[in-house]
Amino acid sequence: MEKKGLRKEDGLLPRPWLSLLALAFGLVFMDPFHLGPLGGHDYRPVKHNIAPYDQVMQRWPRDCRSRLRFGKLEFVDEVFGPESLEFDPQGRGPYAGLADGRVVRWMGESIRWKTFALVSPNWSEKVCANGVESTTAKQHKHEKLCGRPLGLRFDKTSGKLYIADAYLGLAAVGHHGGVATLLSTHVQGRPVLFANDLDVHRNGSIFFTDTSSRYSRSDHFFILLEGEATGRLLRYDPASGATHVVLRGLAFPNGVQLSKDQTFLLFTETTNCRIMRLWMEGPKAGKLEVFADLPGFPDNIRITEKGQFWAAIDCCRTRAQEVFSRNPWLRSVYFRLPLRLSFLAGMTGMKMFTMISLFDEEGNVVEVLEDRGGEVMKLVSEVRQVQGKLWVGTVAHNSIATLPYP
Ligand SMILES: *[C@@H]1O[C@H](CO)[C@@H](O)[C@H](O)[C@H]1NC(C)=O
Ligand SMILES: *[C@@H]1O[C@H](CO)[C@@H](O)[C@H](O)[C@H]1NC(C)=O
């Protein structure tokens, strides 16, 4: 530090403008009037464990033709935020979990969508059935009561439908539907706060993600902003009814998918923009490794008949986000600026568009499809490849997108 010329009156902030600056900085940092988007929130940003931006982006293939643009939006304003899409063991469906708390089933052109199951025993038409409004923030205050089914999977052996509900936990319903039975609501004495997705092991065990131990779905934005890693991978054992913690300390664990031979399990870590692989059998059993680093924020992941994996990715990472992810203090100041969150996010170069990507069993990219302008598909949550067609779910919009494929 330059000491020369330091006079006595240069002590602690002598000039009024310096004091003002310090005060302004202090106000932004502490945000005592809760003007920033975080309000009075106990915001605890941490460093993420994320692959370097350049390393990921330079290697990532792009879809210059932006082929997702040729997709079609179907069932517009008939389904609300269908995050997960599933077909039953007879191939009927799709079934979809909606923002109003219902699981619905497609019955064909004349009957169309019919309620198949409810997760919450307290579901009521009056409070919960808010149609297109249910994908807006208005529904957040009802979601705890109405439920929010996010992950759906049929058990091919029993014909049961398993449901990961963001508020209620893990549930199951028989093949005739109805009100689901709650199977796992607590683990080690603490609530499953944010069940997100699941898959069914051939021995009957259900592997499912609990996205955070601090935040429920309505506060999911804080998980991303903080980079907090209190999520878990859980296993429900139907024989004993017990739930076990398989992995903890995960950053927004989201989609879950077992491999075709079930030697490994994949799950996405949304905050860290990657897919992780947990080996279940063989020489590497129990080992956890990075399967693929992604250019954006993944949601669900689903297997194809050939045993490859489709990941739904909300795009994209930016350089600014990289700086933020490595400097928690910077996020701490920035997101206390008294401006709208969408504006602050926009300033970091975040523009939402969609990318879906197919991986082989080694984690190599086989295919990338994009809608670069976000013209047709925005905020995708899941991709199912069924009978020559991709079915694309979304947690935020009131439609399902489809695209002939391959
Ligand atoms: C349903 O309502 C009952 C009675 O108010 C309550 O005890 C129970 O916890 C509620 N269940 C759920 C899943 O919200
Ligand atoms: C089912 O398989 C999983 C994964 O290998 C294992 O953790 C679990 O203990 C098995 N459950 C039973 C009942 O064998």
UniProtKB/TrEMBL annotation:
GO terms for molecular function: hydrolase activity. Keywords: Glycoprotein, Membrane, Signal, Transmembrane, Transmembrane helix, Vacuole. GO terms for cellular component: vacuole. Residues 196-282 form the Strictosidine synthase conserved region domain. SUPFAM superfamilies: Calcium-dependent phosphotriesterase. The chain crosses the membrane at residues 12-30. It is found in: Vacuole. Belongs to the strictosidine synthase family. This is Strictosidine synthase conserved region domain-containing protein.
